[in-house]
Amino acid sequence: MWKLTLFLAIWVPISFCFVILEDEFLYLHKNGICNKPQFHYEADNSEEEFAVFYNNWDGLQLPETRFGDQFTSKYSFLKWVDVFYGTLGGHMFSGTAVPFGMCKMGVDVINSKKGDAYSGFQPDGEVVGVSLLHESGTGGAPTYGVVSQLPMIASSASSVDVTRQISFKRKSPDVAHIGYYKVELDNGVDIEFSSKDRSGLYEYTFPELKDNGKPIIMVNVSQHLHSFGRPWWTQNFRSGQIKVSSDLKSYQGKVTINGGWTDPGEWTVSFFGKFDKPARKVATFRNGRTLPFLRRMQSYSGESDIGVLFEFDEDTTVLKSHVGISFNKNEGVKVAAQNLLDDYPEDSQFDLTWSVASALESWNDKLFKKFEMNVNEEDPLIISKLYNSLYGTHLMPTNKSGAEAPWDNGEPYYDDWFTLWDTFRCLHPLINIISQDHGAEMVRSLIDIWEVEGFMPDGRSGDRSGRTQGGSNSDIMLADAFIKNVHQGIDWEKGFQAMYTNAEVEPPYIEDPMANDSTNKFGRGALKEWLELGYITRNYSRSVTRTMEYSYNDFALYIVAKGLGKKDLAKTYLERSKNWRNIWNPNAKSVNIHYDYTGFVQPRNSDGTFAQHRYDPFTCFGCYWRDDEYEGKPVEYGWTVPFDMKTLLEYIGSKAMFEKRLDDMYAFCGHENVVDIGNEPSFLTPYLYAYINRQDKTSALVDWIINTKFKTGPRGLPGNSDAGAMQAWLTFALLGFYPVAGTDIYLLTSPKVNYLKLKSMPNVPDIEIFAHNLYSEFGVRNNFIEKVVINDKELDKNWFRHSELFEHGGTIEYYMSEKPLDWDSDKECPPQEFSV
Ligand SMILES: *[C@@H]1O[C@H](CO)[C@@H](O)[C@H](O)[C@H]1NC(C)=O
Ligand SMILES: *[C@@H]1O[C@H](CO)[C@@H](O)[C@H](O)[C@H]1NC(C)=O
Ligand SMILES: *[C@@H]1O[C@H](CO)[C@@H](O)[C@H](O)[C@H]1NC(C)=O
Ligand SMILES: *[C@@H]1O[C@H](CO)[C@@H](O)[C@H](O)[C@H]1NC(C)=O
Q: Cβ distance 515 to 467 under 8 Å?
């Protein structure tokens, strides 16, 4: 707490950001951006449970670790990334991982007052273990949290009380940075850990033991994350086995779990663990009872738990353990052991410092070295937001190519798509610029899943496809890669066939209690209606969401069909993309008097009439599986047609009305916030002012969102990270442009850094971004665009194409202005109509 107070006291007089907010709103007011400016800034909520980087938004307060400054001096990004960023509310994973790595090693807690531990971590509650598999930033229900160890002290392994779940409170808040984590338990044991792609390393420090205490490590094979809040989606332990080596130095086995958000099928993960010294004794437990030592144990269905307690010599102070994991179906244990060897060379096997250094090098190589800037000349708050965002965009989906893939056909394999509904909008477009090597493999993996299983997934984890919230958004993800020339190794004919399956083949019915009218597993539920009627009726759940998204999905088919020279198909799908018009009701009205205009999307009954019952364009009622709209109001979904803006503008009637309606979506100009900024359906909406030549408003609005909705620290994210979708949104907002997913179009906003060089990007040449005159002589940030110059040519549009900047590289220069200018009023708007 004191840190924050002290810090603010020093900070305020020299701050850009606090001053800027008020000034900016004054400008908005004076210059007619808003009639009723509203200013509110919520400060970070301090939580005493966080040590470390809590409030580290100046990038100066690195946690003290055993490494001194050996890593900070080499990796300047280290001090900017707070691994607890977005953990509260954003469900961010806080442990150790490498970019897109399978192993995400982190603390698992129960009994948190803050609710379910989606990624294992909560700052409060009790620690039940440190495990090797997690998701990051997801909603739905907690996933994974398996293959764990928990250290404790007891007089002997067989004396440990296993009748209840063993857990410990922390002695002090966790300390961590990228690649390194430390948790101090109140039983006196400190756990430090680090991990690599498919294995992790534990280092335990035991206190000096008295009263006959012995160091004990519990390997609870059954351990996994539960959902207490949504028990219908909780994971369950199905079966497990474990075998201890005769020298008591290693163990191996596997665990099978079912349930979870994706679908009720099962998945199995194998493990191979090793200690740096042999145990002295071992006890086993099953169903809450300690058993005499058995070297081999297998659980049977219906059993609640099995595990092993390893007891070590009492003079053991430091104990290390190394665990590899594998999803390989046939030789899981063998592959897990091999993964360990691949990740850690023989002479570095138990070397935590080496492991941390190696993880940091991966992050540098795969991500941070691509961003070159002079951080000392930038606003530290912006740099902190940028680096934290970047980190969050390279955790998922996970690269399980090779022996981890569920089949062996040589194609890349990625899992943990959680979910494309969230990530197609800007996470994949970001990956398609900065990490195209992964981007191409992700596309190949989706196509390969289609080839083997019949459909591409929308959500997937534990090698099981499951849960489509709206459309088949893999279509848009593929189109985005296609049009941005992400071609390495991709068979686009097959890719189109996979999309064609989504568009034309009704997925098999699989019952889902959340909404049993049609399938939610993959493909497009209720496709028959789409094909026959050109919209989804209220006979099916999520009829508005599905209609809007199927339109966008079909537009994605048009993009790829056209690019492949399939003219007829391109025509068909372009026509079908216009189907959203079928649910536009020009007479639909809000009951809210603030919004006294007509014309919105509206669900239709099976007889074709617009549904009046339970309809208000500004409400989505339950906003969930059985409602007309999923996590978004009709008025939000109405904007999601970047491929048919001319029609939307016509429907709305005039540019002035279009502008008013956009203004009404955000609280920054009065009323309440209509859109949920922390959720995906409205990600593109702040940028739509480009279509009416009011780019200045986008700059103002995006700036307002960056300043007021995104913060630093654990509550830094305005909603679930959703596998990095939220951070990808922020990344683009800070860079100064935003992708229209599935097209080659970027819409402009004002960059927040003076200079940034994007370099060492696979297949994409270097790009330099300049924001001239970004700060006034008083250090106030200029948030408006005067003009934009790409490769020495002034832009005659308020948008640009991928090829203009990313094909040959070069520079994009923004000239900034203190006041909003109508710089784009005579410029060309983004394409509003498409043709074959
Ligand atoms: C092992 O984990 C299972 C599942 O989380 C739990 O029910 C059980 O109580 C744990 N056993 C011990 C001894 O902690
Ligand atoms: C994905 O993982 C495989 C197997 O480890 C590896 O060969 C490949 O290079 C990885 N992809 C990228 C882009 O790093
Ligand atoms: C769907 O669930 C409802 C009630 O929960 C039930 O009445 C109906 O028969 C179910 N329909 C199908 C197709 O399973
Ligand atoms: C919609 O459901 C009703 C009954 O619930 C049924 O009579 C009707 O045929 C269905 N309409 C369509 C278009 O499937």
A: no
Q: Are the C-beta atoms of 170 and 115 separated by less than 8 Å?
A: no
**Which residue would you say has higher pLDDT here, 253 or 713?**
253
Q: Are strands 810-817 and 767-772 parallel, antiparallel or unpaired?
A: parallel
Closest C-alpha among 102, 98, 242, 219 to residue 157: 219
What is the bridge-based pairing of β-strands 598-601 and 737-739?
unpaired
Secondary-structure breakdown of the chain: helix, strand, coil percentages, each rounded to the nearest 5 = 30, 20, 50
Rg (CA), the chain: 27
Give CA–CA dist 178/72, Å, rounded. Answer: 11
Nearest CA residue ID for atom 5, ligand 3: 513
Give the number of other Cβ atoms within 10 Å of residue 207's Cβ: 13
Task: Quote the distance between the C-alpha of residue 344 and its chain's center.
Answer: 28
Distance CA 544, CA 628 (A): 5
Q: How many domains does the chain have?
A: 1
Q: Which domain range does residue 174 map to?
A: 76-366
Looking only at Cα atoms, what is the longest distance across the chain? 83
**Residue list, ligand 1 pocket, CB within 6 Å:** 162, 165-166, 220, 222-224, 237, 304-305
Q: Which atom of ligand 2 is nearest to the CA of 402?
A: 4
The answer to the question of residue 719 being in a domain is no
Q: What is the 3-state secondary structure (H, E, C) of 742-802?
A: CCCEEEECCCCCCEEEECCECCECCEEEEEECCECCCCCECCEEEEEEECCEECCECEEEH
Residue 61 lies in a domain: no
* Residue 401 Cβ contacting ligand 2 at under 6 Å: yes
Kindly indicate the confidence band of residue 262, based on its pLDDT and cuts at 50, 70 and 90. confident
Of the ranges 146-150, 282-286, 663-667, the best mean pLDDT one: 146-150
Cα dist from 608 to 120, 471, 527, 582, 605, whole Å: 47, 21, 17, 10, 5
CATH of the domain at 151: 2.70.98.10
Give the pair of three-digit tokens for residue 686: 């702040």
- Nearest one of 782, 786, 777, 775 to 814, comparing CA atoms: 786
Q: SS3 for 278-307, per residue?
A: CCCEEEEEECCEEECCCCEEECCCCCCCEE
Tokens of 465: 């496809």
> Residue holding tokens 């617009």?
610
CA separation for the pair 767, 805 (Å, rounded):
7
User: How far apart are the C-alpha atoms of 183 and 191, rounded to whole Å?
Assistant: 5
pLDDT in tens, 46-101: 445 554 443 444 444 677 899 999 999 999 999 899 999 999 999 999 999 999 99
| Residue 330 token pair | 């046939």
Ligand 4 centroid – CA 539 distance (Å):
6
Phi/psi of residue 417, nearest 5 degrees: -90, 105
DSSP class per residue in 59-90 = S--PPP-TTTTTTTTT-GGGGG--TTTT-TTT
Q: Is residue 320 part of a domain?
A: yes
Question: Residue 777 is encoded by which pair of tokens?
Answer: 């002589």
Q: State the angle between helix axes of 655-664 and 645-652 in degrees (0 to 180), rounded to the nearest 10.
A: 90
Q: Which of 232, 511, 516 to mutate to test the pocket of ligand 3 (most atoms within 8 A of CB)?
A: 516
Helix/strand/coil for 184 = strand
Q: 109 and 103 in contact (C-beta within 8 Å)?
A: no
Q: Which atom of ligand 4 is nearest to the CA of 529?
A: 13
Residue 13 has pLDDT above 80, yes or no: no
- The confidence score (pLDDT) of residue 302 equals 65
**Do residues 770 and 813 touch, judged by C-beta distance below 8 A?**
yes
- Residue 771 counted as domain residue: no
